[in-house]
Every structure is written in C-alpha cells, then in structure tokens.
Amino acid sequence: MRILTILILGSIFFLSCDAAKKEVPKNNQEELVMYEFSEMALLMEEMYKTNEDLKKKIVNKEAIGEFSNKFLNIHSAVLTNPKVRDASFEIFSKAFVENQQAIFLASPDEVKDQFNLMVNSCISCHKTTCSGPIPRIEKLLIK
Fold it and tell me: Running DSSP on this structure, what letter comes out for residue 77?
C-alpha cells in the first residue's frame, strides 16, 4: 500500500512537471492592438451613464435637472461604421433626442412613462443596427 501511494504521488509530480515544460513561450514581438471607440460609441456610453443616473433620480423622485445638449451630438458624431448613418438612423436619432428632451418637460406623473418611451426609442433603433447592446439598454427601463 505504501509503495502504491509513493508511485501515485511520484506520477502526479512527474506529470505536473512535464506539463509545465509544454508551456509555449510568448513571442515578445507580438504587437497588441488596442480597440479605439468611435465618437458615437463614446457618446453612447456617456448617454447610457447619464440616463442611468436619470433613472435613479426618477425612481427616487428627485429633481432631474435640465436637458443636456451633449445628446444633440448624436447627429454629428462619427460612427464606427459610417454606412449606418442612413435615413433610418436619422429618423431614430431625431426621435431619441425629442423623447430625451420630453423627459425634462414632463409632469412628475408622466416622467417615468416618458423616460421609458425614450429607452424604447433606443431599443427600436438598435433593432435595426448594432443589436448587441439591447439587453443592456433594456436594464434602463423603469418597471
């Protein structure tokens, strides 16, 4: 029994040492390529964070402040894929800005519904192009 235990431990030790030798050395000359966000991707991130904060204020019935003109940059920000800026994009982006502005004009009783309308306008646009962030955008909806 003692010999069997020694053989098993020895085998494990030998195999673990052998596995370490098979590690492939990395080529130090490989160049890392960093992804750069487009202006639109950066704007979308900023809009998401702003609307996340706005959602908290609405839920907590706090003052929501004023509309930020940075949302107007949606019409001019450089897209990751410039071909996406078509008539459909222009219609959706105009609707988004109008819905975003309407939040700040809504009565306290209507602000939640108006916020959700704005979020749904984002989702509608993303259903036509760049569908990846839809689950994240849906988290903004106020239930």
Answer: S
DSSP annotation string for 38-72: -HHHHHHHHHHHHHHHHHHHHHTT-------GGGG
142 and 111 in contact (C-beta within 8 Å)? no
DSSP state at residue 24:
P
Phi-psi bin for 119: left (phi > 0), alpha (psi -120 to 50), beta?
Answer: alpha
For 19, the token pair is: 């596995």
Residues 87-103 have pLDDT tens digits of: 999 999 999 999 999 99
| Identity of the residue numbered 89 | F
Neighbour count for residue 53 (Cβ, 10 Å): 12
Instruction: Give the pTM.
Output: 0.74
pLDDT, position 122: 95
Rounded Cα distance between 98 and 120, Å, is 13
Cα separation, 130 vs 93, in Å, equals 14
